[in-house]
Amino acid sequence: MRQFLCIAIVLGMLVTTRAAAESDVDGAQAVLARARSASGHGWAEVHTLSAEGDEAAIGLIAHWHLDIDVATSRFRQLSQFPLFRTGDVYDGATDWVIDRSGAVHPLNGEFARQEALTDAWIASRQYLNANVTAITPTHVSHRGEAGKMYAVLNVTPKGGIPIDLWFDPDTGWLVRTDEQLPISHLTTRYSDYRQVSGLMFPFRIVNDVDGNIDTVSVTNYAVDSATDASAFSAPQQIHDVMLEHPTTIAAETNGSVVIEATLNGMGPYAFILDTGGHDILTPAAVTALGLNVTGSGRSGGAGEGTVEERDTKVRTLKIGDAVFSDQHFYVIPLDYDTVERGRRPPLAGILGLEIFERVAVAIDYRDGAVTLSPFAKSPDVCAGTTVDLTFNEDIPLAQGRIDGVDGLVAVDTGNSGLAVVQAVWAAKKGLTVKFANGVNSVSFGEGGMLQNWISRNHTVELGEARIPDQLVSYATAKSGAFSSRTEAANVGYEYLAHFNLYFDYSRQTLCLEPRAGFVPPAFNRSGMSVFKEDPDTFAVVAIRPGSPASEAGILVGDKLTEINGQGTAAMSGDEVSKLSRGAPGTILHITVDRQGQLLTFAVTLAEPRWDNANP
Asked: Tens of pLDDT along 260-285?
């Protein structure tokens, strides 16, 4: 998540007698006029700003640096942590993010462009211009926090996203801003103001993204110091991969795409190849590799909760003939249900954005293969549909349609199931009733279990790549990846497996070549959802009312011990899922442990009652 640390100066507060939350354009302009008069002398002559300091985040301390070109609103922010460097560079049109691996990708989606305009507007003090026609002020209100009232100005910079500016009634300083992001909320607080060159600057800046705290202690500011114009150009892409020719690796493609890699010459280890994720190692894999870890943060996923996040580095990562050097990995305790593979060793983690930033990636679901190519040698011609990819954060987005209705669609190879329709988009399009109906179900992601509604006979499209008769899931999450305010849907296996895929992030394109013959797996015919908590335990976490499992008498909380006489401890979640999707009329003899008592039930598989489902 990009956390731009904007710098504010002393702002005056308009003393007003108008009612709280009163819509008042004149009052908003007066607040800005007072801010100009309170900002200090000589602001109109300022051309550049620079700042240095220490940044405390994820349990680490970084050297922090900021440059701002006031005239053009361009900015550059860099944070050098002990193990990695991160940053943002806004070149006046696109915000380029430097992730923890050192690689670069653009934040060039519609929302990201709007967010960058707002951040640049704040950072370059455009609200202090005498001509403030570049904003749409909506209202001035009074809001309380910790027993104190503040004047809050809500504005939308031209082309940007709305932002709330909080002014302290005693000092007149800007003490807080609030921005609503696609799946999170960013609050930035400013304090410890001091005078520099006749202007006032905050020497303490705290960013809070849904509880993830990032604190900058500024040590110095410089006004109109010499800054190389190249500082605001797009950063150079890192070159840390050796690959001369395309290399093809065998892959499991029954849901998630799973490939093998060696790390520091050890392995091979199995990983999910996930356009919706980052390079991640599990703690068990880190221990096996003897790696050191550092940092301490929180990470989210498809679920509504968060999990612990740390950092490590791998000297060499080898996938086929491709060798990646000095690679950053997040260390995250992925759910056992995510990494388990029954009798086989569990997955070591995920390979995500960092791979796609460095090489072109082709996925062949039918033949079970993944090909990595140097960008210069990726295919020039697409025998299908090419769609442009954009980024609001880290997952690739493409323009698409759900049942003919336009929307922004996330392309997620880590999604092992159905296309997921986002609730905010559905509500905006008047489609809530249509999608919040069908068969109630649950799904799992890092961060917890999600309630969904599954409905059928939908058409999903990316560009001209149209697949009819799709089951889709309607997400009801209030937080996490499936609570997006900007995306229409997230498409995964049951859409993507109809194609051969060619991802080329250097061109920001995805080629989808149709591949006939893919038959999606049947929907769960038992009505029972299970979660593998540990190597020995499958827990029943949901029972669909009126389903075969419900009628047989299985209850939420039961622990599976046998299916058709086979012990479940040695079974994988995929094996249990395959059994639950058997032909209608198939009988599963399921033994459960219910608070120490072993009970056996006969579950006769049947199609869900689609036509009788309730919203």
From this structure: 999 999 999 999 999 999 999 999 99
- Which structure tokens are listed for 416? 């092992």
Q: What pairing do the DSSP bridges indicate for beta strands 419-421 and 465-475?
A: parallel
Indicate whether 444 belongs to any domain: yes
Whether the model pTM is above 0.85: yes
How are beta strands 306-319 and 369-373 bridged, if at all? unpaired
Residue 22 has pLDDT above 60, yes or no: no
Dump pLDDT digits (tens) for 435-472. 988 888 776 655 556 777 899 999 999 999 999 999 99
Shared-domain flag, residues 317 and 361: yes
CATH, residue 466 = 2.40.70.10
**β 405-411/489-491 pair status:** parallel
Q: What is the pLDDT of residues 142-154, one digit of tens each?
A: 889 989 988 888 8
Residue 299 CB-half CA count within 13 A:
19
Checking 282-287 for CB contacts under 8 A at 24+ apart, the result is 282/331, 282/332, 282/333, 282/334, 282/339, 282/346, 282/347, 282/348, 282/349, 283/331, 283/333, 284/346, 284/348, 285/348, 285/349, 286/312, 286/331
| Contact of 513 with 384, CB cutoff 8 Å | yes
Query: What's the N-to-C CA distance of the chain in angstroms?
Result: 34
Torsion angle of the four alpha carbons 432, 436, 437, 440, in this order, in degrees rounded to the nearest 10: 180
How many domains does the structure of the chain reveal? 4
The per-residue pLDDT for 42 is 72
31 in a structural domain: yes
Same-domain status, 249 and 356:
yes
* Element of type H or E holding 110: helix 110-123
Q: Are strands 587-594 and 559-563 parallel, antiparallel or unpaired?
A: antiparallel
Rounded Cα–Cα distance for residues 401 and 95 (Å): 27
Q: Is the pLDDT of residue 25 over 60?
A: no
Q: Based on the domain organization, do 258 and 389 belong to the same domain?
A: no
* Residues 209 and 322 placed together within one structural domain of the fold: no
Q: Are residues 177 and 41 in the same domain?
A: yes
Return the sign of the alpha-carbon dihedral for residues 363, 366, 368, 373: negative
Name the pLDDT band for 107 (thresholds 50, 70, 90). Answer: very high
- Round to whole Å and give the CA distance between 52 and 220: 6
